[in-house]
Specification:
- The complex is a heterodimer.
- By secondary structure, chain A is of the alpha+beta class.
- Chain A is built from nine helices and 17 strands.
- Chain A has two domains: about 230 residues, 3-Layer(aba) Sandwich (Aminopeptidase), CATH 3.40.630.10; about 90 residues, Peptidase M42, domain 2 (Elongation Factor Tu (Ef-tu), domain 3).
- Helix content of chain A is about 25%, strand content about 25%.
- Chain A has an eight-stranded mixed beta sheet.
- The radius of gyration of chain A is 21 Å and the shape is globular.
- Chain B has eight helices and 17 strands.
- In chain B, strands 1, 2, 3, 10, 11, 12, 13, 14, 15, 16 and 17 form an eleven-stranded mixed beta sheet that branches. A six-stranded antiparallel beta sheet of chain B has the order 5-4-9-6-7-8.
- In chain B, helix 1 packs antiparallel against helix 4 and helix 4 crosses helix 8.
- Chain B has two domains: about 230 residues, 3-Layer(aba) Sandwich (Aminopeptidase); about 80 residues, Elongation Factor Tu (Ef-tu), domain 3.
- The chains are: A alpha+beta, B alpha+beta.
- Chains A and B meet through strand 7 of A and strand 7 and strand 10 of B.
Chain lengths: ~350, ~325
């Protein structure tokens, strides 16, 4: 197994939401600085590492992954010493009740009225953030105000595990997985110049990618994408499937990927015995949407792992798919130089 | 073992209703570490402990706490190796999507499936338990090798301290009650002035139909009983007038099914001993083992002592340590009264 599981675990267990990626950036900076020829942080917090190629090839290429995870933010205080909160990024209210969270190093619990005390109507009501609170254990509002400020970030508690048949469950596979792949690839030498870009604020509209100021011809986005491959879902609606390999997308809600690059990617995979799949649905979007309209149009491709339960405390993905993405990305960089 | 360690050990143990073997053994080991000569027996998933040698001149006081916890039971393994489950005890299904669960004796981790946005209905209602699938990360063959229909599924989060003296853990309903009885037992033994033959019952299946309390009370045949369980503490969304307040002390039950004089005696003792307490009025039934224990063999004078708890029947229930302590204090004060 190529995937550096320890690195993935460390990255997944760190906390860094959109606009609060500092801890992730610092960790990655320390990890990669020895392998980069130039390294800088731009005004939006993007970490940009340039690595000179070993040959004199003129193709300029970037590999990107986003550092931010979905998270929450404290919006107001409740009278019982708990706080009200809202999602930062696309977290569905369906999947947060009962979860453990952490803010400023304090553990909290997301709770609501007990089911026993709800009317029939209340029981049938869809999940709603307005009905939920985070309880850190404060006796009252004043105590809470001393330790928690409005605007404080709240994260799902660290919870990385390996389970089942080489599967991973964690709060932040999206997109610390991508970060792990970039960290691993920057250790290698490539014939062409490669810019490794660790981007901010993807979960709130690909804002890091929008700000990214680099002059390249080709962008490869390493991401996670939806898999709904469980019983009761029609085949096309499964979108992607776990253990069926790297996902190479022709189109999603943000991007129509470069046709030649898409075909080249598939071809390289086939030639090298790397398992790939496409999405069977036009859904989702990622930093590619900002990159492919940049600088007169960067030729962009996304290579993703299929991931179940995205944007929840337990994203689930397989190590075998991760390995396929890593292999394919490496081959792509080499091939693009030809 | 200190109070925190006892609570951590109890809440970490499995014991979904009907499968209380491990928790019976865990409680038994704690009791024996405290009182080496204590006589305990496990009958039909219930743990019974005789605190004092039976004195025929004394009445028998039963202290009951149920030790089963809510969860699920595997009913089917699907074509793709996912699990279908049935409910044991009522949960708010809004806690289920993407929750971490643990399956069977070996606690194989799993995640409850949640639909991505492209499949979810904007007007969606909360799930029903019969709709959920559990992802154990295995194909059908591997799942069938490791998991059997009938295995229990735990909703579980680790024991954690919150701010102040609050604890977040799974199964505090009713491992908090069990901890209160263990602490009361310590005091009763140390004080050595009990007016009663004291019998402890850690009962099974309260979350289903209170079978454990029914059959065990029959065999113990007590004169009076105190049932220790958890009750609702105020948190956002609750009706302040009808629930308890966390950290304000043990809740003494008053109900049609409880003995009024017994309730009053407990209130008087709490006042006399300066034990913080609250009164919990349950107009008809108590919804605890007390409803069943009180009608055993010609009747048992029964009282309830409840520990206020937030977020009941979720994987992260919250209690205050001081409320467990005041519950234990009141039980031991009653035993010597």
């Amino acid at each position: 197994m190529n995937m550096n599981i320890k690195l993935l675990e460390t990255l997944c267990n760190l906390n860094g939401g959109s606009g609060d990626e500092g801890k992730i950036r610092e960790f990655i900076y320390e990890k990669i600085k020895k392998n980069a020829d130039e390294i800088r942080v731009d005004n939006l917090g993007n970490l940009i590492a340039f690595k000179k190629g070993t040959g004199n090839n003129r193709v300029r290429l970037t590999l990107t992954a986003h550092m931010d995870e979905v998270s929450f933010i404290v919006t107001s205080y409740r009278d019982d010493g708990t706080v009200r909160f809202a999602p930062v990024g696309g977290i569905n209210a369906d999947s947060v009740l009962g979860r453990r969270v952490i803010s400023n190093g304090l553990t909290g619990v997301i709770g609501s009225k007990a089911i026993h005390n709800m009317t029939e109507k209340e029981q049938q009501k869809a999940a709603d953030f307005d009905d939920f609170s985070i309880d850190f254990g404060f006796a009252d509002k004043a105590e809470c105000q001393e330790k928690i400020s409005l605007g404080d970030r709240v994260y799902f508690e660290e919870n990385f595990i390996l389970f089942g048949n080489e599967m991973v469950a964690s709060k932040a596979i999206d997109d610390r997985f991508g970060c792990a792949i970039l960290i691993s690839l920057i250790e290698k030498n490539f014939p062409c110049d490669v810019t490794f870009a660790f981007l901010t604020q993807e979960e709130v509209g690909c804002r890091g990618a929008k700000a990214l100021d680099i002059d390249v011809d080709i962008a490869i986005v390493i991401e996670t994408t939806t898999a709904a491959d469980f019983d009761g879902v029609l085949d096309d609606k499964k979108c992607t499937r776990i253990n069926e390999g790297a996902v190479v997308t022709f189109m999603d809600h943000g991007t129509i990927y470069d046709k030649n690059l898409y075909e080249l990617t598939r071809k390289i995979a086939t030639e090298n015995g790397i398992k790939t799949q496409t999405k069977t649905l036009i859904a989702g979007g990622n930093d590619a949407s900002a990159l492919y309209i940049k600088n007169g149009g960067i030729k962009t491709i996304a290579i993703s792992i299929p991931c179940r339960y995205l944007h929840t405390a337990n994203c689930v993905a397989s190590l075998s798919d991760m390995e396929m993405v890593e292999k394919l990305a490496e081959k792509m960089i080499k091939k693009c130089t030809e | 073992m200190d109070q925190l360690k006892i609570l951590e050990t109890l809440t970490d143990c499995d014991g979904v209703s009907g499968d209380e073997k491990n928790i019976c053994e865990t409680v038994s080991a704690i009791l024996k570490s405290e009182i080496p000569h204590i006589k305990t027996e496990i009958r039909d998933n219930n743990l019974i402990a005789f605190l004092t040698k039976k004195d025929p001149n004394k009445k028998t006081l039963l202290l009951d706490a149920h030790i089963d916890r809510i969860g699920f039971i595997v009913t089917h393994i699907t074509e793709n190796g996912f699990l279908k489950v049935g409910n044991i005890g009522k949960t708010d299904t809004k806690i289920l999507p993407a929750a971490r669960v643990y399956v069977g004796e070996k606690r194989l981790p799993g995640v409850i499936c949640t639909k991505p946005p492209h499949l979810s209905d904007k007007e969606s209602k909360p799930l029903s338990v019969s709709d959920i699938l559990i992802d154990v990360g295995l194909d059908k063959k591997a799942t069938e090798e490791k998991i059997s229909v009938g295995d229990r599924v735990l909703l579980h989060e680790k024991f954690t301290r919150l701010q102040g003296d609050r604890i977040a853990a799974s199964a505090l309903d009713n491992r908090a009650g069990a901890a209160a009885i263990i602490m009361a037992m310590r005091k009763i033994i140390a004080e050595n002035s009990s007016k009663y033959n004291v019998v402890l019952l850690f009962s099974s299946c309260e979350e289903v139909n209170e079978r454990g309390a029914i059959i065990s009370t029959f065999s113990i045949n007590p004169d009076i009983a105190i049932v220790v369980d958890v009750t609702f503490a105020y948190s956002h969304g609750e009706d302040k007038d009808t629930v308890g307040e966390m950290g304000k002390g043990v809740m003494i039950g008053v109900s049609a099914t409880l003995d009024k004089e017994f309730s009053n005696a407990l209130i008087d003792i709490a006042k006399a001993e300066n034990i913080p307490f609250q009164v919990e009025v349950m107009p008809q039934k108590t919804g605890t083992n007390a409803d069943m224990i009180s009608t055993n063999r010609g009747g048992v004078k029964t009282a309830t002592l409840s520990i206020p708890l937030k977020f009941m029947h979720t994987q992260s229930e919250v209690v205050s340590l001081s409320d467990i302590a005041s519950t234990a204090d009141l039980i031991s004060a009653f035993a010597r009264s």
